[in-house]
Amino acid sequence: MSRHRNDRRRLFRRRPSDDLLERSFRTCPGCSADVHVFADVCRHCGGALELRAS
Asked: What's the pLDDT score for residue 19?
């Protein structure tokens, strides 16, 4: 066996509090469905969404 086999470390760990997928969606105020952050219209109810600057 290689001596490096037991010394593996994960380089890219998922952070439970900062997940890219969670940051990519927001809640529609009209129907409470999850919509993409850059959407200007909700696909579920057709309501207009306001783009927010972060």
From this structure: 76
